[in-house]
Design a protein that fits this description.
This protein is of the alpha/beta class and 522 residues long. The chain is 37% helix and 16% strand. It binds flavin-adenine dinucleotide and succinic acid (SIN).
Length: 522
């Protein structure tokens, strides 16, 4: 048993920012962060483009950023949330700078601002093309300086502790009291009790197999929240990034930042046709949903496996300075961008929906907060504007911190039981886990991809049910392992994506279902 004032699940931008703030404010309270891989492994670490924020008020304005966000979200953003996040953004970025995060500057000493799809102005602050890496570095450094934070790497949160574990009769009102956590090195399961728990567990890319996310993005927090009966919404809005580097084997793919298109790169078919001009007047800088759907349509027309990003006309010296990581990665793959085009395809990138939270980051379960990619704040609507995700995590980590500054004490029940795995044994059938994982990812890729239809969605539910039954059977008789829990979580997440896709009767933003068009034209 471990007792903590605050339990934070996840060490990306959302979890670390909150932990630093609350630890600084209350030096006598303790904060436990659990994270399932190395400290820095997260979607945050791989963020390239940067943080969208209005810092140049001569050319840019809050109004323009608000409008761009609302347009990308295709009518489904919460305008009050958009207003709040955009206006809070500059303060949160200045705070990062106080915490020694480095952002690129121009020779004149002003911020070097990038541009990405859907943005009407240059407003993305960045650190070369490794903004997320720099953020993690600065935040982790801060965490290590604070003695009241205990960061437990290689600790996997299995499930939230709720009234359900106390076998309470009245479960209308559910409260959270911490989490059961697996020490991935020893196999021991800790009961971490906490007055307040923050889910900052990131995204779901691995559910699709082909993704820009690292393999740890398995939607664990969402699945835990779902099992705890927390309200979850907008799961149908999966954002596919248009330009993941193409590799025939798929899997986790290297991202070619949208900022490269902001820098002037063109998208071309194998024959050299600059096809985005046929789809949108903003061409390569249309919002992501439009670019991904256009690429999908070109690939279906031509039967090709990828399209190409052409950088050959760009100032290569400036490119190398701006995107050193991308330049080097391309060279490593034998693609000299001075002469060769980069093969790219869309890949699953970001979940716009998630655990519903209010403006203070509160979920529908008492004492449980959610922040970052696992949460659904209303900022993104049907499609997230590029580089608004890091911004959202920073702003909401601050809001949650403010809310908890005044929160009343929570009495943690005495009778929380330890994890019970009586009658279970270590799973021997790893092939079963691997096989079901591959089936799940193929199912999501083939039936629940960029362009959906109801027949395929119904088939997906049917196939998913079979996978679910097989995995639940195994789970019931097994001691928990990370891979088994992750698979189980991904099945929960896939179910939510498919079910909420079927519930959506109208196409918006990143959601495109052919059956809805047929219905509308009848
Ligand atoms: P994450 O950074 O993903 O952190 C989640 C944490 O939770 C991890 O530490 C993980 O190990 C931990 N965790 C998960 N499950 C468990 C569990 N069961 N137990 C314990 N720990 C767990 N957004 C932008 O705004 N700008 C960009 O330029 C940008 N570029 C991107 C580039 C790439 C390649 C990718 C993948 C994403 C990019 N995004 C960008 C999106 C953005 O990076 C993420 O949405 C954001 O970083 C999410 O932060 P987070 O803290 O919510 O989650
Ligand atoms: C990118 O650099 O293209 C990713 C930006 C984002 O996902 O916001």
């Amino acid at each position: 048993m471990v007792t903590s004032n605050y339990l934070v699940i996840g060490s990306g931008v959302a979890g670390l920012t909150f932990a630093v703030k609350i630890a600084q404010k209350f030096p006598n309270k303790n904060i436990t962060i659990v994270t399932k891989g190395n400290e820095e492994e997260s979607n945050t670490k791989y963020a390239q483009g940067g943080i969208a924020v209005v810092l140049n008020e001569e050319e840019d304005s809050f109004d323009k950023h608000i409008q761009d966000t609302l347009i990308a979200g295709d009518g489904l953003c919460d305008p009050e949330v958009v207003d709040m996040v955009v206006k809070e953004g500059p303060k949160r970025v200045h705070e990062l700078i106080e915490w020694e995060t480095n952002f690129d500057l121009n020779p004149e000493g002003t911020f070097d601002l990038g541009k990405e799809g859907g943005h009407s102005e240059y407003r993305v602050v960045h650190h070369k093309d490794i903004t997320g890496f720099e953020l993690e570095r600065a935040l982790l450094k801060r965490v290590y300086q604070l003695p009241n934070i205990r960061l437990l790497a290689h600790h996997f949160a299995i499930d939230l502790i709720t009234d359900h574990h106390l076998e309470k009769e009245n479960t209308n009102e559910i409260s959270c009291y911490g989490a059961y956590v697996l020490n991935q090195h020893t196999g021991e399961i800790l009961t971490i009790k906490a007055q307040h728990t923050l889910l900052a567990s990131g995204g779901i890319g691995s559910v699709y197999g082909h993704t820009t996310n690292p393999i740890i993005a398995t939607g664990d927090g969402l699945a835990m929240a779902y099992r705890a009966k927390t309200k979850i919404k907008d799961m149908e809005f999966i954002q596919f990034h248009p330009t993941a580097m193409y590799t025939p084997e798929g899997g986790s793919s290297f991202l070619i930042s949208e900022a490269v298109r902001g820098f002037g790169a063109y998208l071309r078919t194998k024959e050299g046709h600059r096809f985005m001009l046929d789809y949108d007047s903003r061409a390569e800088l249309a919002s992501r949903d439009i670019v991904s759907q256009s690429i999908d349509s070109e690939l279906k027309k031509t039967g090709d496996s990828c399209v190409y990003l052409d950088c050959t006309h760009l100032d290569i010296k400036a490119f190398k300075n701006h995107f050193p990581n991308i330049y080097d990665k391309c060279l490593e793959e034998h693609i000299p961008i001075e002469t060769d085009w980069i093969p790219v395809v869309p890949a699953s990138h970001y979940l716009c929906g998630g655990i519903i939270v209010d403006k203070d980051g509160k979920t529908s379960v008492n004492n449980l907060y959610a922040c970052g990619e696992c949460s659904r704040t209303g900022l993104h609507g049907a499609n997230r504007l590029a580089s608004n995700s890091l911004l959202e995590a920073l702003v909401y980590a601050h809001n949650i911190y403010l809310d908890l500054c005044d929160a009343p004490k929570v009495n943690i029940p005495e009778n929380i039981p330890p994890w019970n795995d009586d009658g279970t044994s270590i799973p021997k059938e790893h092939i079963l886990i691997q096989h079901n994982l591959k089936q799940l990812q193929a199912l999501m890729r083939d039936y629940v991809g960029i362009v959906r239809n109801n027949d395929r969605l119904h088939l997906a539910i049917k196939h998913l049910d079979l996978i679910y039954e097989e995995v639940e059977e195994l789970y019931k008789k097994s001691k928990v392992t990370t891979t088994l829990c992750e698979l189980r979580n991904m099945i929960n997440v896939a179910h939510l994506i498919i079910q909420q896709s079927l519930n959506r009767k109208e196409n918006r933003g990143g959601y495109y279902n052919i059956s809805n068009i047929k219905k509308a034209s009848k």
